[in-house]
Amino acid sequence: MMKGDFDNIPIVSLAGLAEDAAPEERAKTVAALKEALETSGFAYLADHGVSEDLVEKMRQMNMAFHDLPMEEKMALKINGFHRGYMPMSSSTIVTSSVAKVTKPNRSESLMVMHEVPEDAPYAGEPLQGPNQFPASLPEVAETARAYMTEMTGLGERIAGGLAEALGLERDWFKQYFDNPTLFLRLLHYPEQPDEEELFGSAPHTDYGFVTLLKQDNVGGLEVRNKRNEWIPAPPIDGTFVMNVGDILAKWSNGRFVSTPHRVRNLSRRDRYSQPFFYDPSMSALVECPPAMLEAGETPQMEPVLYGDYLLERLNKNYDYRKKAS
């Protein structure tokens, strides 16, 4: 298959990435991931090992949070560490390489990131500060922490499979994730009018390593192939939608593709989703591994500190950061 030449998104069983999986099962899973990420950059992940009860509990907490009075949500307005409540229409994806985005996204969200111990030597550095959770719903914090722990474990297993898909040692990515940058975004997309250039999430590529999305049964996610057709990515029970972010596409020297996607909620119902972003440590120096390059192939990217790369994008896309900078 050629890059970007797809009409649907494959389902990949991750059973082969389990610790006790037979080598031939693992090889099969790695090959399936490789094909999916080289062709569409997207895959539905089945047999992922994350408790469906926990996934459902997180969805319930997402809905409960967005049902809170606006005054209570606004008391948690996003802080300089990129944690907290983002009201409707407060992000515009100006760094999108796939569309000229002029209208803010029709969504609101609670942004949760990795926990930072108060006495951590890096506390207070960019994106290293406290999360904000509603005091009236302590279960939101409890569930989010448990969910992020499970999803981090899944991210680690996937990173091992991706390293092997690139011809590297299974643990190759580990050195770059000793203090991973984690985002859990609890999103609410209200019903939106069918207006031109108005999106729940405008066409964009993600800028990190991998995104692991749980969507509800409303639908609205679409992925763009190389013929400029928007392919629906409807929810499939028991799966996460995984996609490649820009930094992984660069790291893999373009082997894995970071594919444009968008959300339009034309369902006449509220849509809730919970993307989890598994990204390297802020201090990770991202550069193409020589071991992966074939004879005569040169790295397409300049080495970059992940933290610098990430902050540049956040500073351009979020209103609250523009005022602060």
Automatic annotation (TrEMBL):
Gene3D superfamilies with a match to the protein in the record: B-lactam Antibiotic, Isopenicillin N Synthase, Chain (2.60.120.330)
Record field: catalytic activity: L-arginine + 2-oxoglutarate + O2 = guanidine + L-glutamate 5-semialdehyde + succinate + CO2; 2-oxoglutarate + O2 + 2 H(+) = ethene + 3 CO2 + H2O
Keywords: Ethylene biosynthesis, Iron, Metal-binding, Oxidoreductase
Enzyme class: oxidoreductase
Protein name (record): 2-oxoglutarate-dependent ethylene/succinate-forming enzyme
Single biological process term from Gene Ontology: ethylene biosynthetic process
EC number(s) stated in the UniProt entry for this protein: 1.13.12.19, 1.14.20.7
Pathway: Alkene biosynthesis; ethylene biosynthesis via 2-oxoglutarate
PANTHER family: 2-OXOGLUTARATE (2OG) AND FE(II)-DEPENDENT OXYGENASE SUPERFAMILY PROTEIN-RELATED
Family: Belongs to the iron/ascorbate-dependent oxidoreductase family.
Gene Ontology molecular function: 2-oxoglutarate oxygenase/decarboxylase (ethylene-forming) activity; metal ion binding
Essential cofactor(s): Fe(2+)
UniProt domain Fe2OG dioxygenase: residue ranges: 180-280
Cited InterPro entries: DIOX_N, IPNS-like_FE2OG_OXY, IPNS-like_sf, Iron_ascorbate_oxido_reductase, Oxoglu/Fe-dep_dioxygenase_dom
